[in-house]
Amino acid sequence: MIEVAPAAVCQAMVEQSMPPAGGRFVLGRRASLLVSAGVVGHTLWTSAAPALTYGLYAEEWHLTHTVIAGIFAVYPIAVVVMLLGFGGISDQIGRRATMLAGLLASLAGALLFAVAPDVWWVFAGRVLMGIGVGLAASPSTAAILEFTSPERAKSAASVTMGAQAIGFATALLLGGASTQYGPWPTRLCFWVLALFLIVLLIGTWLLPRHMPGGGAGGDWRSRMPSVPRHVRRAFAVTSTAMVAAYTFGVLVLSLGGQVEHELIGSPNAFLNSAVLSLFPIVMGAIGIVARPLSPRLALIVGALISSAGMVLLILAVSLRDLIIYLLATAAAGGAYSLLFVGGLQVISAAAPERHRGGILAALYFLSYLSMGALALVLGAIATARGLSLAVDLGAAAIILMNVATLVFATATSTKRQSAAPPPSA
To answer: Which of 191, 45, 202, 201 is nearest to 116 (CA)?
Structure first.
């Protein structure tokens, strides 16, 4: 059974970073863990925040489908660019500083959405949100691993998953409620998000000022996402699982969202968002239930459930059956949780702390890149050949990733992986 490496060194690092008496106030380990989880949650909240306002922008400003697609596309592009150029920077300047920069960019983006007088402000806001998420995603995940107590180190992946699920569900439900019932349908949800980001900024400012990896050097290459040679086997296992998990967002919440809208046939934005929120709700629930599972078992079960969910989605589209679609959405949410939690446990056991930010950034880079590429390809296919074919091809691609995950997971040694490289590395 693969186990997460003890976090005693991480805890000692945090304790040593505490200032002497009379210094600035610094949060304790538990409060720091909560703040780090909040930063992880903001990445999914920010990602899904505008989902229900695109149609309103199109009506208000008479936008074409091409412009709306452009607003959607600039976000993953900005995330990928930031991860490629600065994915490992938190290993150099610290998790706290990197998260602060990311939160400031996300806050600026939310405020631009909240006051946007035209579509160009929305474009700028979406780019800033992508920059913020690209900076904050990997250091906040690494911070959760480092602030988790040694006796509960294995729960770090479940905490990360729970934070993602809460952020995702909040974005959908808040967006649907404000769009349907709020006084400012295109603005209220972004003001609420901005307020949450201000609270997170204050909490992050009070985190310990530690320097993971010792802040070694300023080489440009060290700021980019990278994977040391001795970690690459674990990285292969985790990356296939996370890529499969992240591409659910395209298939279930993008193309599948169009199917859901047609099947429900309701103009009520809150009802539609409530149905979409089934995905993150199941995601969070399974993340709690899956905590006792070994990473290997979680990956195997997650890949199998994912494949079953994709078959159900194909059936839901071909039969136009809402119940089957809901079952497919629930299966995808559960599979996402198992694949993410299992994969994160594998990589956290193998990744040395001084390279953790760069390794996690590489994982997020592959996940967002595959998500953006699949969205463009399937969107073009849906426009040219129809929604059904696009869903079928997307489901087939995810099933192939699940097969790769099964192969890697079953071939991976069940012995505990060392967090330190062998002498030859």
So the answer is: 191
Q: Spell out where 120-223 has E strands.
A: none
Last residue of one domain, picked from the residues 180, 197, 224: 224
- The predicted structure's pLDDT at residue 413: 52
Structure tokens at 408: 């890697």
Q: Residues 6 or more apart from 224 whose CB is under 8 A from it?
A: 84, 85, 86, 87, 88, 358
Contact 351, 361 (CB under 8 A): no
Verify that 204 and 233 share a domain, yes or no: no
Does residue 241 fall inside a structural domain? Answer: yes
What span, in angstroms and rounded, lies between the C-alpha atoms of 183 and 53?
14
What is the model's pLDDT at position 418?
39
CATH of residue 172's domain is 1.20.1250.20
- Domain tally for the chain? 2
Q: How far apart are CA 9 and CA 3, in angstroms?
A: 16
Please list the rounded mean pLDDT of every run of 10 residues in the chain (425 residues).
Answer: 41 43 70 92 88 78 72 83 83 88 96 92 93 91 81 73 88 85 86 95 88 47 67 84 83 65 71 83 85 86 93 87 88 90 82 75 84 78 81 89 88 48 39
Per the CB < 8 A criterion, the answer to whether 8 and 151 are in contact is: no
Query: How far apart, in Å, are the Cα atoms of 267 and each of 55, 60, 62?
Result: 12, 17, 19
How long is the chain?
A: 425
Compute how many other C-beta atoms are within 10 angstroms of the C-beta atom of residue 410: 11
DSSP code at position 252: I
- Do 154 and 303 fall into the same domain? no
Range of the domain at 134: 26-208+219-224
Q: Look at residue 52 and tell me if it is in a domain.
A: yes
Q: pTM value?
A: 0.77
